[in-house]
Amino acid sequence: MNRDAIIAGRYRLEREVGRGAMGVVWRARDERLDRTVAVKQLLPDNSRDDAPFRSIVRAMREARVAARLKHPHAVTVYDVAEQDGTPFLVMEFLPSRPLTELLADDGPLPAGRVAELGAQIASALAAAHEDGILHRDVTPNNILITKDGQAKIADFGLSHATGEGTMTGDGLVVGTPAFLSPEVADGEEPGYPSDVFSLGSTLYTALEGAPPFGADGNQIALLKRVARGEITAPRATGPLTDVLLRLLRRDPGERPDMAEAERMLSAVADGRPAILAGTKRLPAPARRSRLPFAIAGGVVVAGGVLAGILLVDDAPDVPVAAPAAPAASAPAAKPMCEARYEVASRWPGGSEIRVSVRNSQDTRLTGWEVSWTLPPGTKIANLWNGSLAQDGDRVRVSEVDWNAVLPAGGTTTFGFIATTGDDGGDAPVAECRSS
């Protein structure tokens, strides 16, 4: 297609402004409405004999999906047209550049700016999810930054909407490998949590300067690393890093939904606590981590679950008279609270740890504290949802205002980043006490 060509009798092509694997984007003039638009010429899949037909079907499907979404942080689709068997999508024209280009020119962005852009994109994706639409290729290249600094998500070409068929082919993994979620890289069907993970990967890249799994030119090796969930240890610390690690949890069931991701990112951008009262509690993992063994945060884990936790009540010692004769020992008192450690993700030299605290009483619990002894060389950083105190190698994590009171059988969570030394030592004894 050449400059000055007219598409569907009304869209005059002016100049090429972008090109990717799925198509070429032109700046064009809608001569009927006298406005500037972007026209995306979809490229055929030459690996199949029915490529032209599939391109047209794909364009129609993409147009139906994208046109359903009306959001200030999503690119608007106006029309779908066909010229000589080639499909074209007509969209709003945005003087902008991809986040990929911005990062290449300026390098990693400040945490506050990343949180601001992330909250905008999360708001658009949350609206899409609410309407039954998956994006399936959330990457820096599909995030456009306008001249006034706003972010917009583009290219729902890999989208799958409820009620729409897929045109990706049997057994084909779709999306950009460096930003895929582990479950998709492992061959599972993508879902809403997959978009959450890809958004986390994209924002991690904006903050750290590289994707969480690296950018290996060997795509098979990269996919294997993604499937294992072995992210590169983040260099940055702080509230945004805490949020990103929640989005990047290997188990899809442990990630927040997109609306919750938007709330957390907005809080970081505004300088507020990212984990607020009323925040959705993360469910217990539906499956164990595939990591065979790790030592993190003073916790020895096998298959992602703590080995050797001791749970006790903090009852005072009460003197009693010695019995006149041996008597049968009374059953041990049921602990008032229980704790469970899990590895949410792992990288060389560190891990993200999640701790679930459960009220095991039939009445409400008004406070709790979990303590353990750190093995030599282990350090804790970026604690969320708890208050940390440390005396030497003894660590205590207690409740904060909003999660202090637990109803009967109720749970809450806290988590942190653990860096490990060379000598992990034996499994520590962890104690959950009520106050």
Structural class: alpha+beta
CATH architecture of the largest domain: Orthogonal Bundle
Gross morphology: elongated
Ends apart, CA distance between termini: 73 Å
Supply the CATH class of the largest domain.
Mainly Alpha
Number of strands: 22
Protein name: non-specific serine/threonine protein kinase
Domain Protein kinase: 11-275
EC number: 2.7.11.1
Pfam families: CBM_2, Pkinase
Walk me through the topology:
Layout: E1 6-7, E2 11-19, E3 23-30, E4 35-42, H1 51-68, E5 77-83, E6 86-92, E7 96-98, H2 99-106, H3 111-130, E8 133-134, E9 143-146, E10 151-153, E11 160-161, H4 182-185, H5 192-208, H6 219-228, H7 239-247, H8 258-270, E12 293-296, E13 299-302, E14 305-306, E15 337-347, E16 350-359, E17 368-373, E18 379-384, E19 387-391, E20 394-398, E21 411-419, E22 431-434
Antiparallel strand pairs: 1-2, 2-3, 3-4, 4-6, 5-6, 7-9, 8-11, 9-10, 12-13, 13-14, 15-16, 16-21, 17-20, 17-22, 18-21, 19-20
